[in-house]
Amino acid sequence: MIKENLAKVRSTLSDGVQLVAVSKTKPVEMLQEAYDAGQRLFGENKALEMRDKHAVLPQDIEWHFIGHLQTNKIKYIAEYVSLIHSIDSLHLLEAVDKEAEKHDRVIDCLLQFHIATEETKFGLDMGEAEALLESAEFASMQHIRIVGVMGMATNTDNFDLVRQEFRTLHGYFEQLKAKYFAGHEEFKEVSMGMSHDYQIAMDEGATLVRIGSTIFGARDYGVPVNDV
Ligand SMILES: *Cc1c(COP(=O)(O)O)cnc(C)c1O
Predict the structure, then answer these.
(1) 74 lies in which domain range?
(2) Residue 227 lies in a domain
(3) Is residue 226 assigned to a domain?
(4) Which of 72, 119, 167, 176 is most open to solvent, judged by the fewest CB atoms within 10 Å of its CB?
């Protein structure tokens, strides 16, 4: 099933778009199945769950952290995480920088923007992002690298609204690129789009789509996960 689902999703991806297989809450057997079908990039949203899966799965998997990250949990992922999508404060970025230094690494990060109409979604607005990027603290960090932006659209069937929100996020990306990252080739990622809206996200310039349920099936949040 997973193999077929992956093939189907892959066949719909635009050129240059990378697939993050969102495996949160799913058992390692299912991730292994996706791995055997050629998938190497996985997204998780809990640090302890990622740690446990990283420990038992093949070491050439690229782990992307896509959830709200608490500073006291960074230590569980800092050694191997390849991209953190969810930087939503200077404080968090400083903490990532510190943990990355302990492992003598530079960790790639995305700035998460609040683009949805829902109150509950995390993320920066443009003013906050600019303040972060202009801060002395940011200037002194040597163990993180900002490579783009991430956002989650409103969970709605109003696809005009979803499209507008993705367009807004892509606009932020362009603005930041021009103002702070001109000539920085690494600043190129726009992480947006999930199972129900990734086609729209690709239309609007996504470079990373984060797809879970279409690949692994619906999630059962009744099953306790490791990191609460
Ligand atoms: C769970 C999750 C996804 C994937 O959602 P699906 O609807 O299952 O594709 C994408 N991004 C984030 C941040 C998530 O938490």
Answers:
(1) 2-216
(2) no
(3) no
(4) 119
Give the count of domains, the chain: 1
* Alpha carbon of 79 to ligand 1 centroid (Å): 24
Q: Which atom of ligand 1 is nearest to the CA of 194?
A: 9
Task: Give 141 Cα–ligand 1 centroid separation in angstroms.
Answer: 29
Q: Strand 62-65 and strand 41-44: pairing?
A: parallel
Say if 225 falls within a structural domain: no
Q: Is the C-beta atom of 22 inside 6 A of ligand 1?
A: yes
Q: How far apart, in whole angstroms, are the C-alpha atoms of residue 30 and residue 5? A: 12
Dist. CA 219 → ligand 1 center (Å): 10
DSSP 159-218: HHHHHHHHHHHHHHHHHHHHHH-TT-TT--EEE---TTTHHHHHHTT-SEEEE-HHHH--
Which CATH number do you get for residue 205?
3.20.20.10
Here the tokens at position 99 are 């943990």
**Cβ of 146 less than 6 Å from ligand 1:** no
| Residue 222 domain-assigned (yes or no) | no
pLDDT string in tens for the chain (228-residue length): 999 999 999 999 999 999 999 999 999 999 999 999 999 999 999 999 999 999 999 999 999 999 999 999 999 999 999 999 999 999 999 999 999 999 999 999 999 999 998 877 689 999 999 999 999 999 999 999 999 999 999 999 999 999 999 999 999 999 999 999 999 999 999 999 999 999 999 999 999 999 999 999 999 775 544 544
- CA 62 to CA 47: how far, in whole Å? 14
Which two tokens mark 109?
């990060």
